[in-house]
Inverse folding.
């Protein structure tokens, strides 16, 4: 149990800015195992979003509360995944060879493709979250339903992202990427853990509306094509690719729930 807590806190330290015990470090062995808890980190980020949204909504409009919620998640993760998305936009938008794409993604400066991509990303996230407020899965428990939808969006999207580690090779040949440690080894525990934490919140919602499981289809279709695109251009993935996948799949999840809700 102590070892599992250490692995969890390693994941929490690596994927968020939340303070962790002082004895937690970037031990490569624990970082390899931390992937099993990546979707669980999504639970934490989703809960933080919901709390920030709910508290803000008591004072301001829902639209303003959503912005506060997004701000809270950015502060929690340090824009870890948004940064990866911007780097992917710049790298694949401006590079035409594997070497050039990887070089651009490694550059800390943001370019036009990254800036434009982030604007579109946040617009889609804002509008989809605003529409998601009309969805209530659990009868007579609107807030619980909403909280589980937010948590599911974060956990499922992180499952989609980390699953690329399980099916594809790491692209860079050096140790220059921030996600190199989690790209080396994994076992069945990491796969099972990621699946369990990634799907559990959605399965709770599906107990009330089983059709909701359909939203996994578009999420993982997008995940498949993203992984295929990365493989085509850079022979695998980088940490930035995982961050971009998480952000895109999170929005696809929200949009899929909204579209499905119209037919439930």
């Amino acid at each position: 149990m102590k070892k599992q807590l250490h692995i969890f806190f390693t994941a929490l330290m690596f994927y968020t800015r939340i303070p962790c015990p002082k004895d937690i470090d970037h031990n490569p062995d624990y970082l390899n195992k931390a992937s099993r808890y990546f979707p669980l980190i999504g639970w934490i980020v989703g809960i933080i979003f919901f709390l920030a949204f709910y508290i803000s909504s008591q004072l301001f409009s829902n639209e303003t509360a959503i912005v506060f919620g997004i701000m809270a998640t950015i502060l929690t993760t340090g824009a870890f995944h948004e940064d990866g998305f911007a780097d992917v936009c710049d790298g694949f938008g401006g590079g035409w060879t594997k070497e050039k794409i990887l070089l651009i993604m490694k550059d800390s400066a943001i370019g036009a493709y990254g800036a434009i991509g982030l604007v579109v990303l946040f617009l889609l996230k804002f509008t989809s979250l605003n529409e998601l407020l009309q969805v209530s899965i659990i009868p007579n428990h609107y807030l619980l339903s909403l909280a589980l939808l937010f948590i599911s969006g974060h956990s499922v999207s992180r499952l989609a992202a980390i699953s690329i580690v399980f099916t594809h090779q790491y692209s860079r040949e050096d140790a220059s990427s921030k996600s190199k440690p989690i790209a080396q080894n994994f076992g069945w525990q990491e796969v099972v853990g990621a699946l369990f934490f990634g799907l559990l919140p959605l399965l709770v919602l599906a107990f009330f509306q089983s059709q909701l499981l359909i939203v996994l289809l578009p999420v993982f279709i997008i995940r498949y094509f993203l992984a295929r695109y990365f493989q085509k251009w850079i022979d695998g993935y980088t940490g930035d690719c995982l961050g971009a996948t998480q952000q895109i799949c999170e929005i696809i999840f929200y949009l899929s729930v909204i579209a499905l809700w119209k037919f439930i």
The chain has a mean pLDDT of 92. Residues 35-261 form one domain. The two ends are 42 Å apart (CA to CA). The chain has eleven helices and no strands.
